[in-house]
């Protein structure tokens, strides 16, 4: 197998207004820059990414490793999604101070709430280090030998790369391991909650509206970054000051209209755009359905219990949202793949690939790839499903099983090395306390009874009455004594005794088989990427998402999900009131919002028609991790906050189709309307820079026309 060290042909594609792709911001000059400008952008590549000067990238932060955020003031004020900050909002909530239900707004710096463990990371610079990381890799190496050499090279780079003492470095693989980049980063760890609307605004529509349009969700929350006296990253301290950023985003009050350029800048998580047809078919027809069923069974219990009790609602709000999000996403992914005939189209592309191999005399070199995929996936499919089903039951949906799983890991670690007892106890203690902070035995037992049969194991409801794990104090007593005593205590527990054989099977059989069968698939996928680029060099290739900083660009566009149905690209506050159902947990509306609507008290946040825009659609190629990403206009101003995709478009993780794939963004005018008119947090509005780029452009055009008339006269 040949690794491509220098990928010159990445920049030889024809320039067009084609959309889709998640592009590396340091490589935008040329094709991407021209393409963005053909879509209406007035930004240069240097405006977006510049190592030596302030640029847009300096305002974009990786929010806690899973979402994106952006700086919107010179005092480190940060905007992200409500669902990205949900666990922090929940952690500060109680029955006395129900910030989930009522919202939270710090009216001064002293009221802002610290969040242990929360961080925001910025990219300082990006460097292509492919030659260094792939040095010494040869075609005759085994996959294990290649990975060992790559790790050795990468570690050596990280140890010697020049950086400041408060900075960090990391390398990431691109194009399935054909290219490597190094990132210099700065991580800020004193992040404080500033504001969040009530769930009835921030999560309006809840599960019913999730992944669909028209959407009417004010999915935003606000935090602030604090730094030390030198404006550098620091742990929480009362002495820290608001961070002064290298760049922050001005906010446009002129909003958007159909056809406007939009750029989403963020940290997309994972995509697999170059999977073979057999893989897409496996995922959508076999893999997804089993996991959908498990999550559906869990949600049936959790949703009902949350409706019955406010205490349960607060405890399980974040967990329910996490479980429901992927559940509905997978359903939409299956629908989109089916609707667009993605599997058939991928097979047609593979036929083109095979034809190119013949024409370029590459059959001997790469002709084995597609038949080998068919063979490997046939063998891999059953174990892949079984492994994921275990994860769904033991790590995602059922908390008692999760506690036994972590306890099993501790037992195995102590057997190997009893000397780590204190560290092992501390680790499990932290896990148990974290789970019990928001734990309800009745909810968890109901989930267990619903999901365990779907994993094919017998149910024993009595373990909930006999185990120590359902009570925190009793669970912690299991950890008292020396290593031998702890192991003895665990094995005498009813729930642990029930779960241990199932967990052992996972580690000893299922996961071993999975890794043995998945390794050759990953190696073949790397070779397939190499072969595609060599056989079809003029095709459009962009690197899959891998939680690194990316640019994706498009335009504001509506879409047609099915025959005779067309969605306009913008939704309005009127639609919130149309969906309003008093007392409903998904569609209730705060009285103050109703009052503002009835009085038409919109301040400066209505559009030219006198209506408040809530959400809008774009053709930007996004995925998980892009939640909270800024939607930036042609001038570099903030106009929206990315938070979702349309249901059928969730297939874009495997198959981006510009006809049906749309991302959903909160209009910043709705965010400002809620902050200002609803919350009364005008001090936050005063902190931002609000601009009118379209009005200024109109003035400029009128001035030019006037000057031309003067010259003619």
TrEMBL record:
InterPro entries: Pep_S46, Peptidase_S1_PA
Region listing for Disordered, in residue ranges: 693-713
Residues in the signal sequence: 1-17
Keyword vocabulary terms for this entry: Aminopeptidase, Hydrolase, Protease, Serine protease, Signal
EC number: 3.4.14.-
Biased segments, Basic residues type: 700-713
Superkingdom per UniProt: Bacteria
Function field: Catalyzes the removal of dipeptides from the N-terminus of oligopeptides.
Family classification: Belongs to the peptidase S46 family.
PANTHER family: PERIPLASMIC PEPTIDASE SUBFAMILY S1B
Protein name as annotated: Dipeptidyl-peptidase
Origin organism lineage: Bacteria, Pseudomonadati, Bacteroidota, Flavobacteriia, Flavobacteriales
């Amino acid at each position: 197998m040949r690794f491509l060290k220098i990928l010159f042909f990445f920049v030889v594609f024809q320039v067009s207004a084609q959309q889709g792709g998640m592009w590396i911001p340091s490589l935008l000059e040329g094709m991407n820059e021209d393409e963005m400008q053909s879509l209406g952008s007035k930004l240069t590549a240097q405006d977006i990414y510049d190592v030596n000067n302030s640029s847009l990238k300096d305002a974009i932060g990786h929010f806690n490793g899973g979402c994106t955020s952006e700086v919107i003031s010179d005092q480190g004020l940060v905007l992200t999604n409500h669902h990205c900050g949900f666990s922090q909002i929940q952690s500060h909530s109680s029955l006395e101070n129900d910030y989930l239900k009522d919202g939270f707004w710090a009216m001064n710096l002293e009221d802002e709430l610290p969040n242990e463990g929360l961080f925001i990371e910025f990219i300082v610079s990006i460097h292509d280090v492919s030659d260094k990381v792939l040095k010494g890799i040869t075609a005759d190496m085994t996959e294990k030998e290649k990975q060992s050499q790559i790790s050795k090279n990468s570690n050596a780079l990280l140890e010697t790369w020049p950086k400041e003492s408060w900075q960090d470095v990391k390398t990431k693989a691109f194009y399935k391991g054909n290219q490597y980049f190094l990132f210099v980063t700065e991580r800020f760890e004193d992040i404080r909650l500033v504001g969040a609307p009530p769930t009835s605004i921030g999560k309006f529509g809840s599960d019913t509206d999730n992944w669909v349009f028209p959407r009417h969700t004010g999915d935003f929350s606000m935090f602030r970054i604090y730094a030390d006296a030198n404006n550098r990253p620091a742990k929480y301290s009362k002495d820290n000051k608001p961070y002064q950023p290298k760049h922050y985003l001005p906010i446009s009050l002129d909003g958007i209209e159909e056809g406007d350029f939009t750029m989403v800048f963020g940290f997309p998580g994972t995509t697999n755009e170059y999977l073979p047809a057999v893989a897409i078919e496996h995922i959508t027809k076999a893999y997804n359905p089993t996991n959908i069923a498990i999550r559906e069974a869990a949600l049936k219990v959790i949703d009902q219990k949350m409706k019955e009790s406010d205490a349960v609602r607060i405890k399980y709000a974040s967990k329910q949202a996490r479980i429901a999000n992927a559940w509905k996403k997978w359903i939409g992914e299956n629908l989109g793949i089916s609707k667009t005939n993605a599997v058939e189209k991928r097979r047609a592309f593979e036929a083109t690939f095979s034809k190119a191999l013949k024409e370029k005399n590459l059959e001997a070199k790469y002709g084995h790839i597609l038949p080998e995929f068919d063979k490997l996936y046939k063998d891999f499919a059953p174990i892949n499903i079984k492994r994921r089903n275990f994860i769904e039951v033991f790590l995602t949906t059922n908390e008692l099983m999760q506690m036994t799983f972590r306890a099993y890991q501790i037992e195995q670690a102590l057997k190997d090395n009893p000397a780590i007892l204190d560290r092992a106890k501390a680790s499990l203690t932290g896990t148990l306390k974290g789970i019990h902070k928001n734990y309800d035995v009745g909810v968890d037992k109901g989930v267990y009874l619903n999901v365990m049969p779907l994993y094919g194991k017998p149910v024993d409801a009595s373990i909930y009455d006999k185990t120590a794990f359902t009570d925190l104090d009793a669970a912690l007593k299991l950890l008292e004594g020396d290593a031998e005593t702890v192991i003895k205590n665990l094995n005498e527990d009813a729930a642990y005794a029930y779960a241990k054989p199932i967990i052992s099977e996972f580690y000893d059989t299922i996961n071993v088989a999975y890794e043995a069968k998945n390794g050759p698939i990953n190696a073949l996928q790397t070779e397939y990427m190499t072969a595609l680029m060599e056989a079809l060099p003029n095709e459009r290739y962009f690197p899959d998402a891998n939680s690194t900083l990316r640019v994706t660009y498009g335009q504001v566009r509506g879409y047609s999900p099915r025959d005779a149905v067309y969605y306009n690209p913008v939704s309005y506050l009127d639609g919130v009131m149309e969906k309003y159902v008093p007392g409903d947990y998904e569609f209730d509306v705060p009285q103050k919002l109703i009052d503002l609507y009835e009085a038409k008290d919109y301040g400066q946040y209505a559009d030219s028609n006198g209506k408040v825009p809530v959400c809008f659609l774009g053709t930007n190629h996004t995925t998980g991790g892009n939640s909270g990403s800024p939607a930036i206009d042609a001038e570099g101003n903030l106009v929206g906050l990315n938070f979702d995709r349309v249901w059928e478009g969730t297939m874009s993780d495997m198959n981006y189709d510009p006809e049906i794939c749309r991302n959903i963004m909160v209009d910043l005018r709705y965010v400002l309307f809620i902050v200002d008119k609803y919350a009364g947090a005008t001090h936050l509005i005063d902190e931002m820079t609000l601009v009118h780029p379209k009005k200024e452009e109109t003035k400029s055009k009128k001035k030019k026309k006037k000057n031309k008339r003067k010259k003619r006269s």
